[in-house]
C-alpha cells in the first residue's frame, strides 16, 4: 500500500474536541478500508497567504493538521466526503512517490550484505575480523579495547 499525507486546514475557531472528532472520523474511514494511520502532526494555527471564502465569511487563519497513512490507491475518491465538512477550509491528499520499505530501501548489493550480516555462520568468519582490524587502524589512538572482564586495555 502506498503512503499518503492528508493535510487538513480547519477553521480557526473550531475547538480541539471537534478537530479530534474530525481526525478520528478520517482515521476510522482509513482503518475500515484496511489502511493504517502511521503519523499525525498538528502545526497549530497558521496565517494563510490569502483569504479563503466560505459561506460564513473569509478566513485568513486556519488550524493545520497532517495525517500520514498507508492506504489503498482509491482512498482519494473515498475522502471526497470531506468536501461537505463545514469545519474544513481545505483538504489535500499527497502521495509519497518512490518510497521504498524494508529491503527494497537498500540496493541489491547492500541488501545482500545486510542479509548476510545476520547469518549465524558469518559472525565468526575471518574476513569480518580482518575488516574490524582495518577499521581499528583508521580510528583515533585515544580509543581503548575492553577485555573479557570489561576492563579497558590500551589498543
UniProtKB/TrEMBL annotation:
Domain of life here? Eukaryota
Please give the Pfam families that the UniProt record associates with this protein: Ribosomal_S6 (PF01250)
Coiled-coil intervals, chain numbering: none
User: Matching CDD domains, A to Z?
Assistant: bS6_mito
> Which residue ranges are recorded for the region named Disordered?
110-155
Q: What ranges does the record list as Acidic residues composition bias? A: 124-146
Checking InterPro entries in the record gives: Ribosomal_bS6 (IPR000529), Ribosomal_bS6_sf (IPR035980), Transl_elong_EF1B/ribsomal_bS6 (IPR014717)
Single GO cellular component annotation? ribosome
> A single Gene Ontology molecular function, please?
small ribosomal subunit rRNA binding
Tell me the GO BP annotations in alphabetical order.
Answer: translation
PANTHER family with a match to the protein in the record: MITOCHONDRIAL 28S RIBOSOMAL PROTEIN S6, SMALL RIBOSOMAL SUBUNIT PROTEIN BS6M
- Give the protein family: Belongs to the bacterial ribosomal protein bS6 family.
**What protein name applies here?**
Ribosomal protein S6
The protein's organism comes out as Prunus persica (Peach)
Amino acid at each position: 500500500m502506498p503512503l499518503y499525507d492528508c493535510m487538513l486546514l480547519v477553521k480557526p475557531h473550531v475547538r480541539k474536541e471537534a478537530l479530534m472528532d474530525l481526525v478520528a472520523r478520517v482515521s476510522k474511514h482509513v482503518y475500515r478500508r484496511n489502511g493504517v494511520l502511521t503519523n499525525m502532526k498538528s502545526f497549530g494555527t497558521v496565517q494563510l497567504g490569502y483569504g479563503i471564502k466560505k459561506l460564513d465569511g473569509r478566513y485568513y487563519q486556519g488550524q493545520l493538521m497532517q495525517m500520514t497513512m498507508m492506504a489503498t490507491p482509491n482512498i482519494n475518491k473515498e475522502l471526497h466526503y470531506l468536501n461537505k465538512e463545514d469545519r474544513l477550509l481545505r483538504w489535500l491528499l499527497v502521495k509519497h512517490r518512490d518510497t521504498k520499505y524494508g529491503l527494497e530501501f537498500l540496493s541489491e548489493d547492500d541488501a545482500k550484505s545486510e542479509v548476510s550480516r545476520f547469518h549465524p555462520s558469518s559472525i565468526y568468519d575471518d574476513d569480518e575480523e580482518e575488516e574490524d582490524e582495518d577499521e581499528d587502524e583508521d580510528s583515533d589512538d585515544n580509543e581503548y579495547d575492553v577485555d573479557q572482564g570489561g576492563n579497558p586495555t590500551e589498543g
